[in-house]
Design a protein that fits this description.
2 copies of one chain form a homodimer. A 7-stranded mixed beta sheet of chain A has the order 8-7-9-10-12-11-17, sandwiched between helices. The first copy, chain A, is built from 22 helices and 19 strands. By secondary structure, chain A is of the alpha/beta class. The interface between A and B is large, with 114 and 114 residues.
């Protein structure tokens, strides 16, 4: 710690007091919120924002600014108070906390320009921090990434996924601070104030760990200084604090989690105590150091380039996916890929081979894979995290929060459905479409062949907001020529005639079952319309309504997915306004091991079943 | 280690060789599977099954038998080979591996009586092991729980959640064994053979850790012996192994993950090498020690008892839930509850107050909360894990696997929807119904008042298989009298007349919006039918069809949930066979903070919007 920063202690002390006062006032005004957890972290935030971090308080999104992630999102009033102190928001605006007409929400969201990722689901901030720190490397910036966590949230496994990955990637620009106030929501944490035990965990996970008194500004400043000087590994500062610090009736007491101070005598007492803690400012006033701006060429959208596939080629969509992201990565260096040790199954290894410096291995840890992608996306990268679609369920809370943040994350899940075959139900994604569609702003794509896959990878990359792409394990024939275009929100009518009596809507592998059914029925003189619903969300309702109307209102959906939330529900919802209903073919029970063809047939989604369903309508 | 067990080494060596041979043969026969990972763990499994564990090989579900969880589920052929060696399954049956007509699936499922929980999604076994070990305490059994893990899977955060909880609960009957073969699917693990680094992690998490040579049976037996004698903390045995051990061309080689040996010359070579490893059996033959059987009274179903609520009382369903599980717990000691540090919000603290010995705190770690519940359920407990419904997304992969296993887990999620108010979107579950309904065998319940909540808690407890109950934050009026009955798969028509022109289907808080709309419309001379859809899955399609038919086919759904996968889709799917479609009112965008009433109105699901939707149909 330099003499300079030590001299700042009186001024920072007063900033911490002002942050406490603002946190108390805003939560009392709103009538709910978390003042106690703001009070425990006031010195930490004062030191970070007004002595340690380099940033531009007028431009929170400056690409070279140090980043701050409030993982303990319920301390939002403290964050807002810090940005008021920094001059970015007006102090009086703090009193709009949690109001419908205010962006100062109960937990931080990126509606606020100084919030990179929404927090409030505990244990996510450090994962995002990993991605934000990886991004600094990607863009050649020296910005540092600070993540403020609660002690209770370090029970979340995702924290240890992040710990492991940060150490593997030697992310020395990442610095975590744990506010160890020893109180969870419903009682003491399991470790209470045993900071040495907590430090031992971080050391065992390869981190530099420091234990400090979280209310001693000199110690905090010194530890931040040491963190900045530590090369080759990230630093975790474990700060012993008191929940409700500064307010006698709240300090270290249970029962104050998520409880504001009542206006009136109680609030007056608290404010009186806090105001008495102001000290004479003998030293210099703090000034915020600016970021080291790096000039960069403007980003430009790339393309996958012309297709190399020919009609009739047999290619798994997962392989076409890997190839497409690799090629797109050559045209746009914002494209990055993340893997959870299945790159040889998802074919993201093709990206790694071409762009090893933008390929991030998180090993078997899907939460940090998605969380790091969220952090990367929040700083301008276009990340493609991929694994087996089944294992994206592991990261659903992160996906949910990526949707809350509307982040530019491009999720890809391979090995969808029973068509994976012998590995059995644990490896089969049969709920992924439902899980993704449930988030109203996630685009859900499901290409059936290699050409549509590569075109949709391109569309996904430049679609604003989160995207999910489902790919399949088996090889499927290329059915689209190089001239075909595909849109987020589109579909393809791939068989049609004026004599069509039913519309059959499939996706992925079932498109080919529908084509087989079309051929079998044609030989019987029955004509069906076949739709490749490669975009489930948004969905081309107008075209579906036209198809339904043209085929007498008869619509059959067929999907390698459980019945709820997939293609059947998407189509039913899209055509309900026309008064049309849907006959659904889907996997309606927990499946078992077998060959792909056996399973498609056993679970009622093979061509034979489509033929029977068509015939049953007459 | 006793002299007795040392003498078993030659026989165990030969068992390990037979397990390798069987694993190689079955995977070669099926043409897919994972022989290499079976080979690395053969000595570990031989030692566990034929020297360490006490169990009845003719009755794998014996309540006092030691338990074995194969967390590295892709080593399924090894598990099957062990049970063949133990005599429970016929050795020739092993060759049916992964066939549609065989229960010997690609990854283990409870279709097999010796499998407690399905595995194959890595990082789950230790969580289940925590629950299985907690169950031993519950039933007063001395059985021990062994969990065999891969090294790669310890990157999963859920493993560290389990590590923490096992240490907090001093689960000394739990013993993990990590098969450290240093090779993941797509490359070396991040730690490779640095076993001391791995051991440091377990020690830092409060475990007893031992490092052994995983192919040295004496060392394995000795470590199991030490684990058994360790009191007050669980033990992790870190076993240095070689992937593909015993087959020269596979040993320690990349590229052999998930790859069987080709029949013919390659297989002959492997078998020749393995057979040459048989040793003379100089010592005694192993015999499996029987479990210490404890006699227990038969379990009997209990009841919550008569309701204490009166019509018009104002009670949050989350509070009625807490009260109901507490009361049911007094009548049936199989009922247990688990919490992730929100017991004062979900009201599971009411259970803790009455039954502290059957209340398990996992702190802020939802994956192990659900995983431990899965383990408990697999051994006869009826667990009610609960947290905010939004945070159950964190455990979705566990919920998926609970569905694959059809386990008796009774999930409860509180604070559903925008009606929680000011805390904002991170705390609002708006996809939970979709997530749960997507699993075809999870019953999904959503009571709107206290009486239906307590009755449905009772139904949930004794419903065979997984159940999800959604509860709400705000207080709602009691609308059902003590005589009302509720069924999994039922609904209540709560307002009806011969003049009804529309059926409005709500659930939870929107039932009361529908009732308000009913009243407002009635004053205009318009009559609507109001349905409380307290069971979304299974769903009473017949009653919904009758309502739809009686109201001219006009059906409106209203839900505090995103549009996809919730009440709207459930009703639409249920009444499609009648040719009826649904007009859906749901939260169609990412919401923000505000008061509950403001948000219900802002997002289009308040009484006013229902009235408008009804009017728009005419």
């Amino acid at each position: 710690m330099s003499v300079h920063t030590t001299a700042l202690v009186p001024a920072l002390t007063n900033i911490a007091t002002r942050l406490r006062i603002d946190s108390v006032l805003s939560t009392s005004e709103s009538g709910n919120g978390h003042p106690s957890t703001c009070c425990s972290a006031a010195e930490i935030v004062a030191a970070l924002f007004f002595a340690e971090m380099r940033y531009d308080p007028r431009d929170p999104q400056h690409p070279d600014s140090d980043r701050f992630v409030l993982s303990k999102g319920h301390a939002a009033p403290l964050l807002y108070a810090a940005w008021a102190e920094a001059g970015f928001i007006k102090r009086e605006h703090l009193l709009t906390l949690r109001r419908l007409d205010s962006d100062l929400e109960g937990h931080p969201t990126p509606r606020l320009p100084f919030v990179d990722v929404a927090t409030g689901s505990l244990g996510q901030g450090l994962c995002a921090g990993v991605g934000i720190a990886l991004n600094a490397r990607r863009i050649g910036s020296d910005y540092r990434t600070y993540v403020l966590m609660g002690d209770g949230e370090t029970a979340e496994g995702s924290v240890w996924e992040a710990a492991d990955v940060a150490a593997v990637h030697k992310l020395d620009s990442l610095c975590g601070i744990t506010d160890v106030n020893a109180l969870g929501q419903s009682g003491p944490t399991q470790w209470q104030h045993n900071l040495e035990a907590l430090a031992a965990r971080w050391v065992a996970f390869g981190w530099h760990a420091l234990v400090v008194d979280g209310h001693d500004l000199s110690q905090i400043l010194q530890s931040l200084d040491r963190a900045r000087q530590t090369a080759g590994r990230p630093t975790m500062i474990l700060a012993r604090t008191v929940k409700g610090k500064g307010i006698s009736f709240m300090e270290g007491k249970g029962g104050w989690h998520g409880k504001p101070i009542k206006k009136g005598a109680e609030l007056d007492t608290a404010l009186g105590e806090l105001r008495s803690q102001f000290v004479p400012e003998t030293g210099p006033a703090p000034s915020i150091a600016p970021p080291k701006t790096v000039r960069r060429p403007p980003a430009r959208e790339g393309t996958v380039g012309p297709t190399a596939y020919k009609l009739g080629d047999s290619v798994a969509t997962r392989e076409a996916y890997g190839d497409a992201i690799a090629r797109l990565g050559s045209a746009d260096d914002r494209i990055v890929a993340l893997d959870a040790d299945v790159k040889n199954s998802t074919f993201s290894e093709k990206f790694e081979q071409r762009h090893p410096e933008r390929f991030y291995q998180t090993f078997i840890a899907e939460q940090v894979m998605v969380g790091a992608a969220m952090g990367l996306a929040s700083r301008g990268a276009i990340p493609f995290p991929s694994t087996f679609a089944a294992f994206l369920t592991r990261a659903y809370d992160f996906i949910r929060m990526a949707a809350v943040s509307n982040l530019n994350v491009k999720l890809a899940g391979s090995h969808a459905g029973v068509s994976i075959g012998e590995d059995g139900p644990s490896q089969m994604a049969l709920e992924d479409l439902a899980m993704m569609r449930a988030q109203p702003n996630i685009a859900v794509l499901y290409p059936c062949d290699a050409v549509s896959t590569e075109r949709l990878v391109e569309r996904a990359a430049y679609h604003a907001g989160p995207v999910y792409m489902r790919t399949s394990r088996p090889k499927t024939p290329v059915i689209y020529g190089p001239e075909e275009s595909f849109e987020v929100g589109g579909l393809k009518v791939i068989r049609q005639s004026d004599a069509d009596v039913v519309t059959v809507v499939g996706g992925g592998v079932t498109v080919f079952e529908a084509l087989r059914a079309h051929e079998a029925l044609r030989q019987q003189g029955v004509h069906i319309r076949v739709v490749d619903l490669y975009s489930l969300q948004p969905i081309d309702a107008a075209s579906l309504l036209r198809c339904a109307a043209a085929t007498g209102g008869r619509v059959i959906t067929v999907e390698d997915h459980y019945p709820a939330g997939g293609i059947g529900d998407a189509v039913a919802s899209a055509i309900a306004s026309g008064g049309f209903t849907v006959r659904r073919l889907a996997v309606s029970e927990i499946p078992r091991s077998g060959t792909p063809d056996e399973l498609l047939d056993r679970y009622g989604i093979s061509a034979r079943h489509i033929v029977a369903a068509v015939q049953s309508l007459f």
